[in-house]
Amino acid sequence: MVLSLALSGLMLTGFAQEKKEVRSEKAVTSTPMHKHRSGKRHDSLRNKNPEEIAKTRTDRMDQKLSFTDTQRKEIYAFHLKQAQDHQKVIAERKAYREKMKQQRMADHEKMMGLLTPEQQKTWKDSYAESRNMHRKHWKKDRQMRKRDFKKENTTETNVVDVKAT
User: Where are the beta strands (DSSP E) in the chain?
Assistant: First the structure.
């Protein structure tokens, strides 16, 4: 009876250690969260004209896929059209944002013209208070997300440290 309990204990210990190793390997190979938000992935294409973007993308693909001359021309043309379309969308988006900004300013001026000076002061105070509350909550939420992200990284680091020792 004692012998079977001892063997069971050794087997459970062995399984528990095996799980830690699998978990730590997973932590080592995993990529950091929100890599796409860092902005570092596309810095090489930022502030370039469509021709440069098309050439860069085509060159990158050509290195991996070894295009023929015909394919290279067709893919360059495809990337050029895609970059030009993207540039148009960006310009339209900027124009729309500017238009909406002007519209909000005009609406604000119109609203203030309809209110008495006392109402204007009350309205501005209310707006400032609302804005401050929004900033306060945004800052608190951001701190919580940072703390959670740090906990996640710390946990992964500790698991890796356990494997190393």
Answer: none
Shared-domain flag, residues 49 and 110: yes
pLDDT digits (tens, 9 = 90+) for 9-33: 777 776 555 444 444 444 444 445 4
- What whole-number distance in Å separates Cα of residue 58 and Cα of residue 54? 6
Q: What is the span of the domain harbouring residue 60?
A: 45-114
**Do 49 and 98 fall within a single domain?**
yes
* Rounded Cα distance, 41 and 60, in Å: 14
Q: Are 74 and 58 in contact (CB under 8 A)?
A: no
Q: How far is CA 46 from CA 39, 43, 49, 56, 144, in A?
A: 10, 5, 9, 12, 31
Q: Cα(162)–Cα(23) distance, rounded to whole angstroms?
A: 11
Written as one letter, the residue type at 93 is R
Count how many domains the chain has.
Answer: 2
* Pair 149, 96 in one domain: no
pTM over 0.70: no
